[in-house]
């Protein structure tokens, strides 16, 4: 059955998965063709943050929440300067935005930024399919004259895969910039941008940190030229197995025992720097309701996730590494995936999820305080 | 860390009778909690006076006390059972208040009982307005967000009047402290209103305290449901957004889950505040619900209130998300942490997460203003709805339209056909929130209103308004389409249009639309409520329909029985029917069937995903049920559909389902019709040689006059085809008959009026029985305490009957069997008889589960609904006796002499309603049912059982003090003996002059008091109404005077309600009360669990 969404475009659109399953709906946002890795996000709020999260680069995001766009688009909530998703899949886009901060509709924004989307399909069926068959390549084709399904499928199968993709440099800043501390400056942090979200330096700035955001290509020399109190490795897209440069930079930081904090991709890089492997999850964690246990306190926090890869580290005991012992500090209670690493003999830790939230709950904001403590400890 | 080892037994307090603001949701919560605690190996002791609950089923707890929920009775239970802990957070405000008073009077300490689930300090912080303001301030200091509305606490009227200025003037909100469902609160626009509302609020508040508050009318309203464990893990289970902006009690609002119009930043801010509040209040092992108002212009957030317990909203949130709050609250209370508790639905993931929805849930309230024509139907901050329906869809429009048709009320669905009316008038009407405002808004849209105009009138969020425009546009497109093409049809279904709506728009019959739709292959699929938006596989088949692509109904092997539930609670159809449906599900599951429940009432146990093998949360309309039957037929064999347990709702579908080829099990639709249709039923009676009161059917006043004259006044008149005695009245003379017909002119044009002889002074008798085609099992015989003419749902009754002898029972048995056989019953039948003089009249027969089935089952310790379900599917009474489901020998008509006496008392919602000028509504009982719930008193003798029923329903009967007596002439004779008894027990009698005179002549002294109509005396002698208001009267006996003199009685009875003085409105109730007072005076009122009663009864039967 073809369903449609009134008020949205009447232009037909087709979503084709690389295993041949197709969904027919209506164009949403820009009309055209797009390819990427199909992933689903289960957050019920925060579409604006999701769309602008650089970690979604080259991914076609399926929203499980049916109504998207209700609060329009404002100028405060984006996590970066542009929309990064490769394509957008929603069931019922809003016909009008309603919020006192809204400046324009999401539909307009998607069109303005050339993001191809599809609406009016059974997003739950698609999500179940991705859950059972795993994340895979997908294409969205919209327009009044579409190629036949075989042609579309062939095109999808020619699109690049996520496994082995080195994408951080594509999304990271090309020039270094500084996010000043809010209030009195207490620390300087060098933050390696592998796809950093705007909220992350903001959370640091709130704690008196002057954040120097450096390009993904930054070297150890670039970092230490700043004489930082701490070094931060951000989230970002792509396969951590390809991140040789950041891994080697991080090893230098570890050798110098500078307080180190990593988020998401940063966690995977720490894992690799310590000698652990990383692997691709079947369908990843993307949402804002994931239960993560802090194994140092036993407390559970509800957290924002966006990761398709994870670190392969033993859960039951500390591991010896060239930089001392490391243990898994955080674990996802849904599936026991490693969600955090902590070095026991020097000031370095990372988490796989997003303590900066945006979108998502603020339960894990204490990790920024932990980073501050590490830097304080190093000074003392 | 697993559960605590220092708790071996827990006392759970239920919520008592169903009243407005505290309904079936607490049976759902309490049942879940008891089961969980029992499965944890704890001894569960339960007290709940409401027999119509699943939680009071003897197998749910280890010791079940159907006793009044008052500190006195609960203390007796504690003294007897010596529980280690008391869990007070699952029985609504009743349980919480009882627990607090037992803490305050030292009982808990005396017996070493620990409060679990919430501590006293937390309860007070959450419930006490002043303390809660402090909580919000502390939260703001910590996280920089959240504030209270500017407000002032008042304990006297002077403080109230002075308070208005400090808030910046009118309007102001008045909120009494410690009342449930917002009782007594409201908006005051001027001093007169303020004096009235605040005066009442001061009276209602147990702490004589009200809060005055700045008005935040028109702001957006949200609720969060939170849970916290002893390790300080907190999760937000659900966010709920109110469609109706601030100003309407959330129980009376259309509500939507999840929140639809918040950005993540705003939502997370609410979440941060919510978490900070639950921590600050100190709810450390349980749940709470927090309400917020958000200014749509700038996002300013005001925290309105919190409930430190499981609430109505938590039941809704549990059903909306699949996250069972009460169950988890019970586990947290005994020491588990959230991460130690598995998510039932995925089985693999823990409960320490936040559900995410890939659907939209809409709840709509069900009102009963038609029952209280004098009541003001404006919606305010006092809850007035009696029930609710919930619907789930893949988008808002689908969920909304499903919810509206789930209400099963004429006019509840959007009407796109009749003339909408004048735009300006409609917009003006929409300004005031009322039942059905959403329909007014739709009419305004149809009449050409713009979105801005709708928003300006209603302050409903523009996104919601646009969704209504979307629905309207589809209706227009449907109307304009040349042909019913698949695209437009699918589109309409996708936005929740019913076949009936489409038919109306297209000028087609509903079944024709359905045929077209099926021919085009446009059918719903069924999706699963899985807590996680499909991120993990769901193990629990909790389904809702949607017009989408992929269905998730799995094939099955076992034959399925589909049980149709009873829909939203309303007066006349409530929790009792849900009880029977749940029992059927349990019994049939045990008998090897796959049970499939269909219902749309989120408050119930039947819509717990644990109750049946499969749950369809769907409207109970022909269309929706046919689609479910279709889907289940594709999944595997269907043994049949049960329609006779869910009350009138499923019964009304029986014939149509059968006509559509659906197998109906149990009593056939034809037999159901036979009993409903007067003429046919009359023939059954004639054949069996049974008398019925004379009656006639009239289509005009002339006819009615003739029939009434022939039958003889008084007569009972009512429209045919009504529920719960709607529109039924006793008419004493011809002018009143004419007046009645004028008032109900609308009814006569559609249906004829039935006129029955009214049996004055008759004893009314209710019988519940099972019939398998060969053998009758007389379930129970209930003797009404009020005479015939009071709706059976509103009258108190006793089982076993207290004045009927063996010969009467024999006659009742013979008559019941003859009717059951004549009608063709296979399952339950309920018959109402009236014994006038020596003649036993048959008033009516209902071949279905009645309202009294749970009461009868509990009073006789026999699961009648379970037996009925089995008989429906072919079991015989003999088989069930052999299995042990029914007693080996004997039945409810042959109870041993020392069997306990059970008294059922109805609970009325009088105090909830005011007329437009703020006066109470009259409290006289009549043939139209008005009660919302019931309690049961059980003891060895009638007097004690009756006293318990009164204590459970209205508070204890007084044993001394002043009794005011004023009765109608026809009652004066029968008043004398009980009045004498009152005096003998030391009561001082007050009476109006007429009654006093009669008493005097019979040697009984009574002080004459002034009638209200006489006004205050020359020396300041107060009128009876003033005396009641001054708290000088402890018991009121006031029977209505027919048509004359009504006003005085009205004043007396409404004063009684306002001051919560027991008020008896029939002499029969007085006689019973006297027996109760006698029992109380003797002081030998004890408590006994149902299990003990049953043991005793079983022993006596052998």
From TrEMBL, chain A:
Q: Outline the extent of the Carbamoyl-phosphate synthase small subunit N-terminal domain.
A: 11-141
> EC number(s) of the enzyme?
6.3.5.5
Instruction: Please give the catalytic activity noted in the UniProt record.
Output: hydrogencarbonate + L-glutamine + 2 ATP + H2O = carbamoyl phosphate + L-glutamate + 2 ADP + phosphate + 2 H(+); L-glutamine + H2O = L-glutamate + NH4(+)
UniProt cross-references to InterPro entries, sorted A to Z: Anth_synth/Amidotransfase, CarbamoylP_synth_ssu, CarbamoylP_synth_ssu_N, CarbP_synth_ssu_N_sf, Class_I_gatase-like, CPSase_GATase1, GATASE
Q: Where are the transmembrane segments?
A: none
* The entry's keywords: Amino-acid biosynthesis, Arginine biosynthesis, ATP-binding, Glutamine amidotransferase, Ligase, Nucleotide-binding, Pyrimidine biosynthesis
The coiled-coil segments of this chain are none
Q: In which pathway does it act?
A: Pyrimidine metabolism; UMP biosynthesis via de novo pathway; (S)-dihydroorotate from bicarbonate: step 1/3; Amino-acid biosynthesis; L-arginine biosynthesis; carbamoyl phosphate from bicarbonate: step 1/1
Q: What class of enzyme is it?
A: ligase
In its UniProt record, a GO molecular function of this protein is: carbamoyl-phosphate synthase (glutamine-hydrolyzing) activity
Q: Where is the active site?
A: 264 (nucleophile), 354, 356
Binding of L-glutamine occurs at 55, 236, 238, 265, 268, 306, 308-309
Q: Where is this region: CPSase?
A: 1-187
Matching entries from Gene3D superfamilies are given as: 3.40.50.880, Carbamoyl-phosphate synthase small subunit, N-terminal domain
Q: Which GO BP terms apply?
A: 'de novo' pyrimidine nucleobase biosynthetic process; 'de novo' UMP biosynthetic process; glutamine metabolic process; L-arginine biosynthetic process
Pfam families associated with the record? CPSase_sm_chain (PF00988), GATase (PF00117)
Q: What family does the entry list?
A: Belongs to the CarA family.
Assembly: Composed of two chains; the small (or glutamine) chain promotes the hydrolysis of glutamine to ammonia, which is used by the large (or ammonia) chain to synthesize carbamoyl phosphate. Tetramer of heterodimers (alpha,beta)4.
- PANTHER family to which the protein is assigned, alphabetical: CARBAMOYL-PHOSPHATE SYNTHASE SMALL CHAIN, MULTIFUNCTIONAL TRYPTOPHAN BIOSYNTHESIS PROTEIN-RELATED
Q: Which NCBIfam families match?
A: CPSaseIIsmall (TIGR01368), PRK12838.1 (NF009475)
- Give a short account of what the protein does: Small subunit of the glutamine-dependent carbamoyl phosphate synthetase (CPSase). CPSase catalyzes the formation of carbamoyl phosphate from the ammonia moiety of glutamine, carbonate, and phosphate donated by ATP, constituting the first step of 2 biosynthetic pathways, one leading to arginine and/or urea and the other to pyrimidine nucleotides. The small subunit (glutamine amidotransferase) binds and cleaves glutamine to supply the large subunit with the substrate ammonia.
- Protein name per UniProt: Carbamoyl phosphate synthase small chain
Automatic annotation (TrEMBL), chain B:
Entry keyword Metal-binding: yes
Q: What class of enzyme is it?
A: ligase
CC cofactor note = Binds 4 Mg(2+) or Mn(2+) ions per subunit.
Molecular function as annotated in GO? ATP binding; carbamoyl-phosphate synthase (ammonia) activity; carbamoyl-phosphate synthase (glutamine-hydrolyzing) activity; metal ion binding
Q: Which residues bind Mn(2+) 1?
A: 291, 305
Q: Fetch the InterPro entries from UniProt.
A: ATP-grasp, ATP_grasp_subdomain_1, CarbamoylP_synth_lsu_oligo_sf, CPAse_ATP-bd, CPSase_dom, CPSase_lsu, CPSase_lsu_oligo, CPSase_preATP-grasp
Q: Which residues form the ATP-grasp domain?
A: 133-334, 682-873
Q: Where is this region: Allosteric domain?
A: 955-1102
Span of domain MGS-like? 955-1100
Ranges for region Carboxyphosphate synthetic domain: 1-408
- Quick one: which residues bind Mn(2+) 4? 844, 846
Provide the E.C. number(s) assigned to this enzyme: 6.3.4.16, 6.3.5.5
- Do the record's keywords include Amino-acid biosynthesis? yes
**Record's function text:** Large subunit of the glutamine-dependent carbamoyl phosphate synthetase (CPSase). CPSase catalyzes the formation of carbamoyl phosphate from the ammonia moiety of glutamine, carbonate, and phosphate donated by ATP, constituting the first step of 2 biosynthetic pathways, one leading to arginine and/or urea and the other to pyrimidine nucleotides.
Write out the similarity annotation.
Belongs to the CarB family.
What is this protein's name?
Carbamoyl phosphate synthase large chain
Organism listed in the record: Streptomyces netropsis (Streptoverticillium netropsis)
């Amino acid at each position: 059955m073809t369903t449609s969404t009134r008020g949205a475009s009447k232009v037909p659109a087709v979503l084709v998965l690389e295993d041949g399953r197709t969904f027919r709906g209506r164009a949403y946002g820009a009309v055209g063709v797009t390819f990427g890795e199909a992933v689903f996000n289960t957050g019920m709020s925060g579409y604006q943050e999701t769309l602008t999260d650089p970690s979604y680069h080259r991914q076609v995001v399926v929203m499980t929440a049916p109504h998207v766009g209700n609060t329009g688009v404002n100028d405060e909530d984006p996590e970066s300067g542009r929309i990064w998703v490769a394509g957008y899949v929603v069931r019922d886009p809003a016909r009008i935005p309603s919020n006192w901060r809204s400046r324009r509709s999401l539909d307009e924004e998607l069109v303005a930024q050339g993001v191809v989307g599809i609406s009016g399909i059974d997003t739950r069926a698609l999500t179940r399919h991705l859950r059972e068959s795993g994340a895979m390549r997908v294409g969205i084709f919209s327009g009044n004259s579409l190629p036949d399904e075989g042609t579309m499928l062939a095109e999808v199968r020619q699109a690049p895969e996520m496994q082995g993709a080195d994408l951080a440099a594509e999304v990271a800043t090309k020039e270094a910039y500084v996010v000043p501390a809010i209030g009195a400056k207490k620390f300087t942090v060098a933050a390696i941008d592998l796809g950093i979200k705007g909220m992350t330096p903001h959370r640091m700035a709130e704690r008196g940190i002057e954040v120097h955001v450096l390009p993904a290509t930054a070297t150890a020399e670039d970092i230490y030229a700043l004489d930082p109190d701490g070094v931060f490795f951000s989230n970002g897209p792509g396969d951590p197995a390809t991140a040789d440069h950041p891994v080697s930079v991080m090893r230098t930081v570890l050798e110098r025992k500078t307080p180190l904090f990593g988020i998401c991709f940063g966690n995977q890089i720490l894992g690799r720097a310590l000698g652990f492997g990383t692997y691709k999850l079947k369908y990843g964690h993307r949402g804002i309701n994931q239960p993560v246990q802090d194994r140092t306190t036993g407390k559970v926090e509800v957290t924002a996730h966006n990761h398709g890869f994870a670190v392969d580290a033993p859960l039951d005991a500390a591991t010896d590494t060239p930089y001392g012992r490391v243990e898994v500090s955080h674990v996802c209670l849904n599936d026991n995936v490693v969600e955090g690493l902590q070095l026991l003999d020097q000031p370095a830790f990372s988490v796989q999820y997003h303590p900066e939230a945006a979108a998502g709950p603020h339960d894990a904001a204490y990790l920024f305080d932990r980073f501050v403590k590490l830097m304080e400890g190093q000074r003392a | 860390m697993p559960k605590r080892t220092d708790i071996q037994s827990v006392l759970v307090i239920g919520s008592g009778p169903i009243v407005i603001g505290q309904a079936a949701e607490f049976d759902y919560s309490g049942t879940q909690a008891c089961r969980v605690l029992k499965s944890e190996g704890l001894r569960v002791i339960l007290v709940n006076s409401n027999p119509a609950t699943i939680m009071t089923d003897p197998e749910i707890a280890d010791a079940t006390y159907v006793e009044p929920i008052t500190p006195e009775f609960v203390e007796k239970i504690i003294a007897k059972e010596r529980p280690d802990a008391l869990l007070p957070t699952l029985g609504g405000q009743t349980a919480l208040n009882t627990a607090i008073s037992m803490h305050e009077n030292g009982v808990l300490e005396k017996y070493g009982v620990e409060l679990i689930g919430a501590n006293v300090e937390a309860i007070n912080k959450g419930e006490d307005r002043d303390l809660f303001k402090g909580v919000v301030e502390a939260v703001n200091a910590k996280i920089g967000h959240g504030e209270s509305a500017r407000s002032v606490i008042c304990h006297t009227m002077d403080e109230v009047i002075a308070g208005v200025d400090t808030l910046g003037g009118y309007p102001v909100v008045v909120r009494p402290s410690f009342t449930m469902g917002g009782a007594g609160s409201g908006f005051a626009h001027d001093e007169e209103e303020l004096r009235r509302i605040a005066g009442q609020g001061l009276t209602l508040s147990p702490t004589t305290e009200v809060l005055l508050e700045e008005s935040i009318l028109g702001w957006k309203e949200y609720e969060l449901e939170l849970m916290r464990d002893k390790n300080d893990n907190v999760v937000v289970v659900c966010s709920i957004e109110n469609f109706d902006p601030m100003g309407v009690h959330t129980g009376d609002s259309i509500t939507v889950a999840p929140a639809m119009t918040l950005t993540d930043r705003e939502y997370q801010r609410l979440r941060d505040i919510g978490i900070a509040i639950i921590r600050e209040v100190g709810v450390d092992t349980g749940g709470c619900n927090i309400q917020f108002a958000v200014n749509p212009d700038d996002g300013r957030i005001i925290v309105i209130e919190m409930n430190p317990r499981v609430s109505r909203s938590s039941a809704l949130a549990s059903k909306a998300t699949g996250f069972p709050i009460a169950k988890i609250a019970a586990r947290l209370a005994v020491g588990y942490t959230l991460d130690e508790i598995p998510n039932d639905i995925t089985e693999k993931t823990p409960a320490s997460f936040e559900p995410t929805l890939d659907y939209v849930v809409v709840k709509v309230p069900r009102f009963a203003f038609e029952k209280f024509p004098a009541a003001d139907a404006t919606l305010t901050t006092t809850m007035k709805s009696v029930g609710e329906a919930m619907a789930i869809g893949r988008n808002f429009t689908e969920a909304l339209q499903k919810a509206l048709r789930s209400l099963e009320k004429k006019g509840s669905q959007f009407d796109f056909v009749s003339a909408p009316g004048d735009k300006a008038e409609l917009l003006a009407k929409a300004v005031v929130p009322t039942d059905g405002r959403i329909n007014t808004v739709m009419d305004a849209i149809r009449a050409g209103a713009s979105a801005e105009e709708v928003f300006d009138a209603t302050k409903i969020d523009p996104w919601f308004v646009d969704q209504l425009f979307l629905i309207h546009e589809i209706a227009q497109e449907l109307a304009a389409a040349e042909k019913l093409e698949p695209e437009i049809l699918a589109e309409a279904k996708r936005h929740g249009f019913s076949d009936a709506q489409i038919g109306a728009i297209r000028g087609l019959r509903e079944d024709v639309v359905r045929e077209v739709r099926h021919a085009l292959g446009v059918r719903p699929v069924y999706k699963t409520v899985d807590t996680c938006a499909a991120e993990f596989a769901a193990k629990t088949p909790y389904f809702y329909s949607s017009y989408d692509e992929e269905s998730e109904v799995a094939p099955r092997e076992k034959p399925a029985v589909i049980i149709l539930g009873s829909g939203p609670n309303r007066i006349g159809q409530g929790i009792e029917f849900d009880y029977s449906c749940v029992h059927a599900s349990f019994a049939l599951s045990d008998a090897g069937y796959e049970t499939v429940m269909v219902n749309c009432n989120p408050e119930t146990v039947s819509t717990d995903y644990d109750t049946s093998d499969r749950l369809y949360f769907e409207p109970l309309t022909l269309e929706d049920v046919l689609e479910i039957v279709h889907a289940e037929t594709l999944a595997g064999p269907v043994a049949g559909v049960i329609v006779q347990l869910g009350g009138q709702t499923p019964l009304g579908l029986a014939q149509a389902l059968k006509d559509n080829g659906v197998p109906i099990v149990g009593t056939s639709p034809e037999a159901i019709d036979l009993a409903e249709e007067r003429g046919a039923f009359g023939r059954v009676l004639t054949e069996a040689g049974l008398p019925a009161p004379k009656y006639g059917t009239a289509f005009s006043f002339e006819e009615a006059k003739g029939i009434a004259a022939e039958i003889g006044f008084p007569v009972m008149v009512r429209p045919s085809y009504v529920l719960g005695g709607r529109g039924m009245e006793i008419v004493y003379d011809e002018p009143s008959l004419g007046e009645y017909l004028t008032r109900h002119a609308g009814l006569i044009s559609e249906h004829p009026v039935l006129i029955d002889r009214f049996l004055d002074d008759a004893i009314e008798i209710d019988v519940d029985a099972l019939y398998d085609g060969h053998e009758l099992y007389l379930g129970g015989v209930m003797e009404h305490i009020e005479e015939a003419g009071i709706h059976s749902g509103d009258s108190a009754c006793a089982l076993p009957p207290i004045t009927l002898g063996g010969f009467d029972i024999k006659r009742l048995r013979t008559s019941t069997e003859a009717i059951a056989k004549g009608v063709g019953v296979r399952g339950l039948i309920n018959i109402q008889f009236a014994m006038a003089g020596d003649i036993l009249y048959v008033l009516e027969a209902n071949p279905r589960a009645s309202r009294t089935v749970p009461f009868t089952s509990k009073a006789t310790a026999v699961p009648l609904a379970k037996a009925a379900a089995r008989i429906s599917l072919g079991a015989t009474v003999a088989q069930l006796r052999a299995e042990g489901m029914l007693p080996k020998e004997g039945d409810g008509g042959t109870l041993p002499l020392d069997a306990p006496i059970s008294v059922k008392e109805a609970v009325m919602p009088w105090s909830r309603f005011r007329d437009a000028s703020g006066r109470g509504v009259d409290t006289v009982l009549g043939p139209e049912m008005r009660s919302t719930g019931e309690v049961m008193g059980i003891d060895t003798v009638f007097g004690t059982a009756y006293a318990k029923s009164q204590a459970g329903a209205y508070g204890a009967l007084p044993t001394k003090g002043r009794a005011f007596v004023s009765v109608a002439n026809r009652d004066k004779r029968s008043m004398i003996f009980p009045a004498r008894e009152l005096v003998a027990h030391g009561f001082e009698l007050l009476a109006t002059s007429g009654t006093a005179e009669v008493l005097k002549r019979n040697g009984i002294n009574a002080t004459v008091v002034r009638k209200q109509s006489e006004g205050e005396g020359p020396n300041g002698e107060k009128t009876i109404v003033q005396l009641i208001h001054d708290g000088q009267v402890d018991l009121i006996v006031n029977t209505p005077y027919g048509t004359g003199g009504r006003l005085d009685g009205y004043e007396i009875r409404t004063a009684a309600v306002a001051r919560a003085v027991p008020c008896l409105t029939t002499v029969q109730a007085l006689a019973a009360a006297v027996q109760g007072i006698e029992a109380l005076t003797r002081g030998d009122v004890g408590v006994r669990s149902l299990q003990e009663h049953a043991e005793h009864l079983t022993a006596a039967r052998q």
